[in-house]
Amino acid sequence: MHLTLNHPHPWDLSIKQAKETQLQLASNVLLEDKYPAEINYVAGTDVGFEDNGKITRAAVVIIDFKSLDHVESTLVRSKTVFPYVPGYLSFRELPAVLQAFEKITIAPDIILCDGQGIAHPRRLGIASHLGVLTGIPTIGVAKSKLIGTYKEPGPNKGNKSLLYDGKDKIGYVLRTRTNVKPLYISPGHKVSLTSVCDIVMKCITKYRLPETTRWSHHIASEIK
């Protein structure tokens, strides 16, 4: 899948430059539903590291949205160009993720990222960053909270509560399995706050994580 990036930028940046880049890109995030009326394919991404973080290992998987069957995947290894700094993980992970998308032949309608969307101090987590660069609708599906406050959602599958940063609504805390820790769901790009949980829940089977995340994690971790 050939990618023509919007707002391309260097990756080997200082923290100050990365912060400025985040603030610039965040102004391009769209929080409206711009995905197809009929979703056919959903992508998942996950990233791991080798050689004490010197090598980034990025997996992309394509899932059939209706059957949740795995239809395509790829794994890319690339030199890591940015240090581990909380709040700036997209600069460390996305170069390899973008290379992985170049090897995929099926273009996804939506990407579910293992990480944050706008639930980020500068409203540009990895899902928003990837969405703005590629123009593909994205959702952040995080296993832990980066920022925000919320009331604990009910114990049953599908229960949710809003995630706030001050007065701003930045996502949902979603229970994807009864009596199991919730996930932190936030719009990335071209998906509205009102739609994110419904899309994620349609990718859930009997596990806490959506099938996109489960498959991409297996591939990134080289679990056979």
CATH topology: archaeoglobus fulgidus dsm 4304 fold
Instruction: List the helices and strands in order.
Output: HEEEHEHEEEEHH
> Strands across the major sheet, in which order?
3-2-1-4-5-8-7-6
- Relative helix content: 10-25%
Quickly name the level 1 CATH class. Answer: Alpha Beta
Class by helix and strand content? Answer: alpha+beta
Number of strands: 8
User: For the report, how would you describe the main beta sheet?
Assistant: 8 strands, mixed
The pLDDT mean sits at: 95
Total individual domains:
1
Output the radius of gyration.
Answer: 16 Å
CATH superfamily: archaeoglobus fulgidus dsm 4304 superfamily
Fraction of residues in β-strands: 25-35%
Low-confidence stretches are none
Distance between the termini: 25 Å
CATH structural architecture: 2-Layer Sandwich
General form: globular
Helix count? 5
List descriptors:
224 residues; alpha+beta; archaeoglobus fulgidus dsm 4304 fold; 8-stranded mixed sheet; 23% helix
Descriptive account of the structure:
The protein has five helices and eight strands, in the order H-E-E-E-H-E-H-E-E-E-E-H-H. By secondary structure, the protein is α+β, with helices and mostly antiparallel strands. It has one domain: archaeoglobus fulgidus dsm 4304 fold, CATH 3.30.2170.10. An eight-stranded mixed beta sheet has the order 3-2-1-4-5-8-7-6. Helix 2 packs across helix 3. The protein starts with 14 loop residues before the first helix and ends with a helix. The mean pLDDT is 95.
